[in-house]
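Standup notes, structure subgroup. Blocker cleared on the NAP input:
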Amino acid sequence: MTAIAAVDRRWGIGSAGGLLADLPGDRGYFRERTLGKTVVMGRKTLESLPGGRPLPARVNLVLSRNSSFRADCEVFLSAEDCLARLARLDPAEVYIAGGAEIYKLFLPYCDTCLITKIDAFLPADSFFADLDADGAFTCVWEGEPRSENGFTYRFTRYARAGAPLAGGGNG
Ligand SMILES: NC(=O)c1ccc[n+]([C@@H]2O[C@H](COP(=O)([O-])OP(=O)(O)OC[C@H]3O[C@@H](n4cnc5c(N)ncnc54)[C@H](OP(=O)(O)O)[C@@H]3O)[C@@H](O)[C@H]2O)c1
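Run returned:
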C-alpha cells in the first residue's frame, strides 16, 4: 500500500478542511499515480473534493463511523472492515489518500509514501507523520524542485526500511 500526500516543511497537510496550497502539477501527479487504482480516504477528505464526490475513474473507499452516511462509493464503518476489503486487492494498486486521521490509521500498512514536499512553513491544522523522524521509513528518491503559484515543491518517495524498492525511480 502507498500513502500519497503533499506536506509543508512541518509535515502539515491541510487547514480548515482544505489543502495548504494550490499546485496543479501536484494534482496531475496524484491523478497520474492513482487513475484506475483504489483510493482510501476519510469522510472529511471526500467532502473536500469538488462537489463532495468520489474521484472519477478510481475505486473510492471511504471511512465514516456514521452508519447513516451515504456516498456514491463504498463506505466502511471501521478500519478493520476497510482492511478486510483491501485484503482482496493487490496492495500495489492501493493508495491511502488522507486526511490526517486516515493516514495515521493506515501508515502501519504502507510500504511506500509518495510525499510532495512544499518548501514553505504554512499554517496547518492537520499533519502527516514526520517520516524523517520515523525510523521506519527512509527517503529513497527526491525529484527536482518545481515552482508553481509562488510555491517551490518537489516529489519524493519514502520506502519502509527493509521493503523492496518496487517500481524504482519516482514510482
Ligand atoms: N495534503 C494532502 O495530501 C491531503 C490529502 C488529503 C486530505 N488533506 C487534508 O486533510 C484534512 C482532513 O483530514 P482529517 O484528519 O480532518 O479528516 P479525514 O481523515 O479526511 O476524515 C476523518 C473522518 O474519517 C472517519 N474516520 C476516521 N477514523 C475512522 C475509523 N477508525 N473508522 C471509521 N471512520 C473513521 C470519520 O468520519 P465521520 O466523522 O463521518 O465518522 C472522521 O471524521 C483536510 O484539510 C484535507 O484538505 C490533505
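Discussed briefly. The domain at 2-160 is CATH 3.40.430.10 (Dihydrofolate Reductase, subunit A).
Next: hand off to the docking folks.
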